[in-house]
Design a protein that fits this description.
By secondary structure, this protein is an all-alpha fold. The chain is built from 13 helices and no strands. Helix 6 packs across helix 11 (220-239). It binds iron/sulfur cluster.
């Protein structure tokens, strides 16, 4: 049905449908099932995403490595006090996204979107926007289908794995998926969604994967928070009519190439980047002593 962004756009234009509709049709064809069934399945994913945001804000979570915990609540305190420097939606999106990483790191239930390490960006940002715009479950489910189409293309044409392509592939892809979904939720065309996804990915081109002590906690959690802001700002630019000068497919291809060019030490081995700094190594030694 579609294997890249250009084919996705052509399909949407030919059928006069949204990206989410195109993805639903693909799922129905592939699994020989009905739109209702795939939508119900996606609704369940959305409900799990919502629960993970709620858990982060209501429970006292302790991460396995002890490197993170309580960040979402700290951010929400500032947002509630009205002292946030980045506005209500962004403040909430960042808090929720970082909160989901706390849930993930404490072995709670999350939806890998596209991976566990980048699981905060999509639910956190969409939940913050839903609270502002009061979108219903059906609209949120559609947004996830739109995001899935972008994630699918990136997975097939490049990668969404930090071990293969660095953090650009994980949190970058999650942000790109989110940016596209935001545009569709705001009523924009499929073309605008692809511009938003391209802008988002370009923004993190070359970002390495360097988890401290090899744990998906830091810098992962903060990259989810900033990924949420990346998604919001990229969507804002695309919605304003500012295009990505480089088409989505070419950006994805470039991201894959950059990922393959990264040395092994910067692809989830915890042997480079901030993981290899004196402080990063000290955290690792401290954790080893605890075991
Ligand atoms: S630093 Fe590595 S493990 Fe952490 S979110 Fe990024 S890609 Fe995933």
């Amino acid at each position: 049905m579609f294997g890249n962004g250009q084919e996705l756009l052509a399909f949407c234009q030919k059928e006069n449908i949204s990206i989410s509709d195109a993805m639903i049709r693909r799922e129905c064809d592939l699994f020989e099932t009905t739109a209702d069934e795939v939508q119900q399945c996606m609704l369940r994913q959305w409900q799990v995403m919502e629960s993970s945001v709620e858990d982060a804000l209501s429970k006292n979570l302790t991460s396995m490595g002890g490197l993170i915990g309580g960040e979402a609540k700290k951010l929400m305190k500032r947002q509630k006090e009205g002292t946030s420097v980045c506005g209500d939606i962004t403040a909430k999106a960042v808090a929720y996204s970082m909160g989901v990483l706390e849930v993930n790191a404490s072995m709670g239930v999350i939806v890998a979107a596209p991976t566990a390490g980048s699981s905060g960006i999509l639910p956190g940002t969409l939940k913050a926007l839903q609270e502002k715009y009061h979108w219903n479950d059906s609209q949120m489910t559609d947004a996830l289908f739109c995001a899935s189409a972008i994630g699918l293309i990136i997975s097939e044409k490049a990668t969404v794995a930090g071990a293969e392509g660095g953090c650009q592939a994980e949190t970058g892809s999650a942000a790109a998926m989110t940016a596209a979904a935001i545009c569709e939720l705001m009523g924009a065309t499929p073309e605008i969604s692809l511009h938003a996804a391209a802008i988002c990915l370009k923004n993190v081109m070359g970002q390495v994967c360097d988890p401290i002590a090899g744990l998906v906690e830091a810098p992962c959690q903060k990259r989810n928070g900033i990924g949420a802001a990346n998604a919001l700002i990229s969507a804002e630019m695309a919605l304003a009519g500012i295009p990505s000068l480089i088409p989505f497919d070419e950006v994805v291809e470039a991201m894959g190439h950059v990922g393959r060019s990264l040395p092994e030490s910067l692809r989830e081995t915890a042997l480079g980047g901030v993981a290899a700094t004196p402080t990063g190594c000290a955290y690792k030694d401290k954790l080893r002593q605890k075991i």
